[in-house]
Amino acid sequence: SSHLEPDLSSGINAEYGALHSFQLLGFINICPGYTFNMRKSYFDSWEDFYSASEQLYLDEPSKFRFTIKYRHCDGKMVLKVTNNALVIKYMSDQVQDAKKLEKLNSLLMRHMVTKS
What is the pLDDT of residues 24-46, one digit of tens each? Predict the structure, then answer.
């Protein structure tokens, strides 16, 4: 498959399919700090990951999945959010990010239990 050149104005480096998905979901405009390629799809900023995760849930609640992976041996936590078409991730080795995880989990739970 052919690769697109990095779009320096949006901060995204993507293959066409993933870039197209981002355009459909509107993430290019709301998440300029997101670096995307097929091997590494991690947000650099917690705030951007938080906003994108909420938006992904609100767009398709029935397809939304959120997983947490913690590796004790290297102290890294990886948060992964997907709707089967798009996967976004955030990785951290900071203890204070556990509190941020609680905040995100709480936000998503509130959305899940409230009627739309």
Answer: 444 444 455 554 444 457 898 99
